[in-house]
Batch of 3 targets.
Target 1
Amino acid sequence: MRKQKVLLALQAVKQLIKLDENDPGSHRCLIRFFHKINNLPAPGTDSEKLIWNVLEAERPDIRQLHGKSLIEVSRSFLEKYNASLTHRTAAAEMMYLLEPDKKMEAIKIIEDSTNNVASGSSVLGSVKEWQIQDCIDVHKLLETVFGDQDAANRWKARCAEYFPYSTYFEGIKSAIAAYSVDNSPENSPENGIAPNPQVKPNEGEACGVNGTVHIVDDMSSLSIR
């Protein structure tokens, strides 16, 4: 982080916290910023010392950091929002950032999340809390930040059950799943599924010839092209 950008970044973090200190994104920015600051070399020049003094003076104004390490701040965040997938994911990601040796524990925090039934009633029946975009973001995080393809695959399979129409998760009712079934080896001519040209369709059935659908019934002269 460039020295001249440090104070601007600090003000941006403070503004995010002021707008919504409970937001997972605000938590990520807070932890990332001070983790970066904590890993900077000791100030050498007068300008660096001045910036450092400003940071030390501003830090007490951030309530979340009062008397706590960054690890403790992230743990408190997890405890406070333990029932939320997005908050658990943010806490897990920051745990991995602060304690890389706890990668599997961080992944477990995500995988132990529970998709509860949302409050309120619906004409369609019970509705789960998780949103599909949040689940997609978690899957990408497991693949990229955590670099754990097995965990990503487990998450994808789990979400495919929650979102059966999702093409991203390849749910059983998605277009991708339907295409896979239609083009499976079992439905290929080599496996005896090809239509027999000598078998005539029953009355009222439709058959296709070179892209033209003919209505086979008493009004055989009519066709839809």
Target 2
Amino acid sequence: MAITASEVKKLREMTGAGMMDCKKALTESNGDFDGAVDILRKQGQKISAKRADRDTSEGAVFIEIFNNDSEGVIIGLGCETDFVALNEEFVKLGNEIAQLAASKKPSTTEELLKLEIGGQALEAKITDFVGKMGEKISIVGYNYLSADKLAAYIHSNGKVGVLVAMDNAANADYDAIGKDLGMQIAAMNPVALDENGVDSKITEREMAIGVERAREEGKPENLLDRIAQGYVKKYLQENTLMNQAFVKDPKVTIAQYVKNEGKGMEIKTFKRVSVGE
């Protein structure tokens, strides 16, 4: 049967798929719109499978803070090109996912993908969107945090975001301090809040590197461990948030900045999510 332009237009408005894809789907389904939608969904699944091994080097970070700034979610939604990352529908999808996560507070990305949005599982909705956009789209990072107060920072390129959790924050300008810390974390990418939060495998690796560096520099064998400990100490100073020099005032550490400005505030934790790094 002949497929009219108005029918193609109607299916396009229903699904957002391309004109030619809509025409092919309607032709294959003999003009049945439900059947055509199913065909487009299957096409999306095929595209998703084909794209599974592609890199999501672009995308955006989305953050929702709620419940009087005491809870928040941060999500990284990845895609292949900045053309899609800047697309209004991609941004809308990212915001919808963040709002869904805020309402349900799943613990993991896997739990998030199983939640329903618009009558279908989020995972299926993303698969459909892959078919519509024609490139790989996936959640590349997700975290939920709760504390006395939360603050958010998203870098100007939209590809790096930080959620900062603070306790005993009632007497401080927690939003301004949190944004300063978020900017620090986005720029410096610390591995942990302080040395106590650093994985032992990291310190062991840095110790081994320090020993080899000292040996290559010709240091005495009996002093290698002591010298390597100095390397590890420097690594922890540069790579743990509270010990880092504050990027806006390098004369003070983050710990000193929080002590000076926080009025008893304690930094509980942070989550940094990025796309394309």
Target 3
Amino acid sequence: MRTAIVTASYRGDLERCRLLCESIDRHVSGHTRHLILVEERDRALFAPLAGPKREIVGERALLPAWLRPVPDPTRLGRRRLWLSPFGPPLRGWHVQQLRRIAAARRMPEEVMLSCDSDVVFVKPFDAARLQRDGAVRFHRQPRGFDDIIPGFRADHRRWSARAADLLGIAAPREVATGYIATCIAWRTDTIRALAERIETVTGRPALAALAADRALSECTIYGRFVDEVENRPTRHFAEPESLCRVYWDGAAMGEGDLAAFVAALGPEEVAIGIQSFTGTDPDLIRRAARLR
């Protein structure tokens, strides 16, 4: 099966995305191409990242015309909102999820590896590792809620309940399984089946149903679909370990901190994700990934 890498990004993460691209070119093999999905106005900014195996895709090629970006008046126009006739205004992280789902539904590749902009590969990684005897890697962490920062657990519960609503799962309303990761593989035929299920349950186009509420986690929807609706376990092999170790919050990391962070990676972890709001210098991350 063929694998495409997909990243949904925006202008504020341009330099982080550049790092990701450098790390893919240095450390990753076995993929057909890398797609970077951006708002239409950002295509020119990201164009220099394009190459023989990398494409910049504007969202107008993926999303319906009824979803329109506008300046966010609450952020003095520095951020964007997406207006929809089917629900409340959406923020960028919601729309990035819609782009990924739309891309997965359309692409000819059988496997999609979704990587956030702030992911940086630091070890050699062959995309063939995402497959085993015709099955595709499926991130499932039993009791994953236990590892969530307490302040974010309510959000995860809402996402799990919303997944149940969209997929027509009567019970349980919520599950404690963790399905979210910053670097995660999907079967694209499973995404197409998931979208069909949402349309059957809601009676609406899948993207309209997804856009109807801000409680949205595409990883949780995918996970609950695989575990509770699709019921075809031979198509997936579950792994609790993430491919990417994330530094979510805290002080900016120094060179020694980054070296220790990379040295502590487990055997399944091939990438790091240093959140941009920690203020960690991208050049230090570049050196930690041996990109210079």
